User: Fold this.
Amino acid sequence: MNCSELADRIAGLQPDARPRDVARLCLLLANAVDSLDRLENEDLLAQTWQEMGWRLQAATDQHAAMTEELETLARSDPRQFTPDQIWVLIRAIKVQSQILRLYVGEPCPIVS
Assistant:
């Protein structure tokens, strides 16, 4: 299987998906398996699809929450940051790192 064939299968599973979403899902699915040929198995494709969906949703939710915290932090004076505000920055870096790992195919634990 190649990326084009995988994209066709994804479009079949999610016909309302935009091209960039199909491309994103291709990348995530391709990074989740050793070989794209493994995704020819319908059960494995469905399982991998579900797992990647959960991971992506978790990362997206964390990113949204972190963005809100960072926007609040950006309105304050950095010279007066509290230790809690510094931890917000550190967590933001971890969340960004997690999302990057998700797209480059490295294993990443869910950040809490």
